[in-house]
Structures are given as C-alpha cells and as structure tokens.
Amino acid sequence: MKKIVLLGPPGSGKGTQAELLSVKENFIHLATGDLLRNEISNKTELGKKVKSYIEKGLLVPDGMIVDFILDYIRKNDLYKKNVVFDGFPRRNFQAEKLEEELSKNGSGIDKAILIDVDENTIIERLSTRLICSGCKKIYPGNYEDDECFVCHNKLIKRTDDNIDVIKNRIKVYKEETTELLDFYEKKGKLVRIDGNDKPERIFEKIKEVVL
Ligand code: AMP
C-alpha cells in the first residue's frame, strides 16, 4: 500500500492531482484544508480555534494539526490503505510525527512529490478559481457553469482566495514549508514535477512515480 505526500505552493494543483489519484487509482485523499474547513462549518471546538489562522493565511499551530491528523489516521485505520496526503505535512515537525505514526504500523511515506509552479501562475489560478460548496471539487476561473457537474451544488470562492491572503499564503509556504523539500530529499524520497502543464499531463507524470 502506498503513502504519497504532495508538496507545492498553494494553487500548484495538489488538490486536483490528489482527487485524480482518489477517483482513478483508488487512493484515499486526505485534504487537510478541506477537513479544517469542515470543522469550521460545523462550529466544532477545533473549528473555532483554527478559523482565524486560516482566514489570515497563517499555518495552524503544529500541536493542533498533528493531533487532529494523527487521530484521523487512527480512526480511519489508514495504515494499510493507499493514501495521498494533500496539505499535510507543512513543516518538518509534522513530517517527523507522520513518519513516526506510520512506522508504528509498518508503513511510511513512499514518495514526496513536489509540483513546482511559478508565482504568477499561482496568483492567477487562486484569485480566479472556485470550489464546489458540496464535494469541494476545484474549478478553474474560466469554468462556464455556476454549479458542480458532479454533485450539482453551487460553486463558491474560498474566503482565503483573495489577493492579500493569497500573497500571505505564498510567503508562508516559502518561509515555512519549503524546509520539507530538504527533509524528503535527504531521505531519497523527493521527486520534482513541473506543474506549469495541463492537469492530465501532470497526472501521467505522477502515475509514473507512484504506480
Ligand atoms: P489548504 O486548503 O491546503 O490550502 O489549507 C488551507 C489553510 O488551512 C492553510 O492556509 C492553513 O491555514 C491551514 N492548514 C492546512 N494544512 C495545514 C497544516 N498541515 N499545518 C498548518 N496549517 C494548515
């Protein structure tokens, strides 16, 4: 069973690629941002704590996110399943805790795939994209309908997809998340893929690495 981490700046297409792995290759898509946004919509204790971080484009404190995700892994018994991690880990501490947890149950991260995209493309993508309010599928800004073709719920803009927060998220990525590239490189697990390409082509490259 495979465990894949997708790395890359916000808007690099991690969510889209993780969804393709889930639909076409039977991976469980663990999307940290979606899980946290659900907590916010459901007004849970965690949701109330993380809301202001997400709205500002800041990372949620490590302790909170690590407990939440490791708990999710245990509850859903993800050890013996194919999993694609999208949005977790985002710092070395989180990556270490993830390795520790998976190794307790005889598994570990197989590959960390960096989807590399230039900054102007990211800003353009994030400031125009929409997501489905139901199933969270991501739609590019030029999509012509206003509802999801899968579940027919309304398409909406993420509250953190506005230009000031986008810039902050990119800054946070550069300052805090790029340390993960070294972490996985040292373990011989890092693979870099050019993300300035069509989603279907990127998916083909990911499959070559993963399958
Ligand atoms: P995403 O949907 O992956 O872009 O995540 C949206 C927001 O959720 C981020 O900007 C952070 O505020 C928070 N978040 C998601 N994953 C993590 C993580 N692994 N560590 C800390 N904060 C996170």
Automatic annotation (TrEMBL):
> Know the name of this protein?
Adenylate kinase
Q: Which NCBIfam families match?
A: adk, PRK00279.1-3, PRK14527.1
Family, per entry: Belongs to the adenylate kinase family.
Q: What gene name does this entry carry? A: adk
> Native species of this protein?
candidate division TA06 bacterium 34_109
Q: Might you give the EC number(s) for this enzyme? A: 2.7.4.3
Q: Which HAMAP family match?
A: Adenylate_kinase_Adk
Question: Is Cytoplasm found in the keyword set?
Answer: yes
A GO cellular component entry from the record: cytoplasm
Which residues of this UniProt protein bind AMP?
Answer: 32, 37, 58-60, 87-90, 94, 158, 169
Q: What is known of its domains?
A: Consists of three domains, a large central CORE domain and two small peripheral domains, NMPbind and LID, which undergo movements during catalysis. The LID domain closes over the site of phosphoryl transfer upon ATP binding. Assembling and dissambling the active center during each catalytic cycle provides an effective means to prevent ATP hydrolysis.
Group of enzyme by EC: transferase
Protein purpose: Catalyzes the reversible transfer of the terminal phosphate group between ATP and AMP. Plays an important role in cellular energy homeostasis and in adenine nucleotide metabolism.
Does Oxidoreductase show up as a keyword for this record? no
Compartments where located: Cytoplasm
Q: What GO annotations for molecular function exist for this entry?
A: AMP kinase activity; ATP binding
- Reaction equations catalysed: AMP + ATP = 2 ADP
